[in-house]
Amino acid sequence: MKSSTDEGALVLFSGGQDSTTCLAWALDRFARVETLGFDYGQRHRVELDQRVQLRRSIKALKRVWAERLGDDHTLDLSVLGQVSETALTREMSIEVSASSLPNTFVPGRNIVFLTFAAALAYRRGLKHIVGGMCETDYSGYPDCRDDTIKAVQVALNLGMERRFVLETPLMWIDKAATWRLSAELGGNELVELILEESHTCYLGARNHRHPWGYGCGSCPACELRASGFDRFKAERVDMEGGYLSDKFRSKTVR
Ligand code: ZN
């Protein structure tokens, strides 16, 4: 475990694989960690439902995490769903538009999220804002780019006269490495917890448990999650002679 600072962090926590990994990452580093979820009129509310369960389960993994995990906040940003016409907020099929962006892109979403997160962090006295944005194997969302996040950080710090640090631990790693990071942070217990309780599927499907977790298995989010998990698992088999091997399990320290 990294030595923690006494500084606090606010984690953008949606209940998906990425934000759950970010939550564990923050709990490993910061003395005080709060979580924030947004309700923006998503077609499926299953991610929001999973948040509560995930917070409860992650506290049970390590005592120090339980001590550090503080309040949960949810903000109603349904206005975002009112202004955007996307496959995440309307009943329409997922496809790639003429601009080569998938129609799951909600314009302005991360900029709005980070701005509200900073307003909340300002009030709560939290310096670090942690998000699961990633440039590596994503769908090309322009608001997930490192430059976008850095520009937003500058704007927030100037406009609020504070020193916020926007942390994006997944920015340069792919989905296999995200699974690896969760194994490093919380051992097999955390990997299992993310498999079982986090939700990534765009269609909100939770009726079938695949080796990589729940989901429809065919939307872009499920495909990304599944292929990342396959690569992670293959790596473990090479390294340890088997995923969930005893050798690996014995390295897990509570
Ligand atoms: Zn799916």
Q: Indicate the low-confidence ranges by residue numbers.
A: 242-254
By CATH reckoning, the class of one domain would read Alpha Beta
Which outline best applies? globular
- The fraction of residues assigned to DSSP E strands is 5-15%
Q: Which radius of gyration do the C-alpha atoms yield?
A: 18 Å
Distance between the termini: 10 Å
Total count of helical runs of at least 4 residues: 9
CATH architecture classification name of one domain: 3-Layer(aba) Sandwich
Bound small molecules, by name, code or SMILES, are: zinc ion
CATH topological fold name of one domain: Rossmann fold
**Helix-strand sequence:** EHEHHEHHEHEHEEHH
CATH level-four homologous superfamily name of one domain = HUPs
Question: In which range does the helix fraction lie?
Answer: 40-55%
Strand order of the largest sheet: 3-2-1-4-5
Number of strands: 7
- Provide mean pLDDT, rounded: 86
Biggest β-sheet description: 5 strands, parallel
Helix/strand/pairing category: alpha/beta
